[in-house]
Specification:
By secondary structure, the protein is mostly helical. The chain has one domain. The protein is built from 6 helices and no strands.
Length: about 160
């Protein structure tokens, strides 16, 4: 038996259907079309000086990253819009939460202080850390049922 029809609160709809997918499109654009800038903002000391100096292998990897950002956009914006089943929302958002932790782990080689040295952050750091924190906390809040109706909280244990 399918779960009851679900309409998430406005905050979750804004964040998961608009804000986060749009931010992922911007990340995809930067990774694919501005590779030297993307790399320079990630780690200036090891970055090429211009797009012309970005190795082909790095361009390919950045295009693959851009593709994954775009997939992230499509999954969140289209899959979540296509269903009113809270189980689908929970499943997709749990997968993205796991990816949030992987994304945060990926910047660990920059040093442990990257996670809290806000005054040293540049545009990429704000996206790779602060925005990922915001996404993870929003997903955790959703998965814990914060702001959801009691009916939807009771429904979370029903798996068919």
């Amino acid at each position: 038996m399918p779960s009851a029809s679900f309409s998430p609160p406005l905050f979750y709809r804004l964040f998961f259907l608009w804000i986060e997918p749009l931010s992922a499109v911007f990340g995809a654009y930067w990774a694919h079309f501005l590779p030297a800038t993307y790399i320079q903002l990630t780690h200036a000391a090891s970055a090429p000086a211009s797009d012309a100096l970005v190795p082909l292998s790095t361009r390919i990897v950045l295009s693959q990253l851009a593709n994954l950002y775009f997939l992230f956009t499509l999954n969140e914006a289209l899959v979540l819009r296509s269903t009113d089943d809270i189980r689908v929302w929970r499943t997709l958002l749990f997968g993205l939460l796991v990816a949030d932790f992987g994304h945060l782990y990926s910047v660990y080689p920059l040093g442990i202080d990257i996670y809290w040295s806000v005054s040293k952050w540049n545009a990429i750091d704000w996206g790779n850390i602060a925005f990922v924190y915001a996404g993870a906390l929003t997903r955790i809040s959703f998965l814990l049922g914060i702001g959801l109706s009691k009916q939807h909280m009771d429904d979370k244990s029903k798996i068919n």
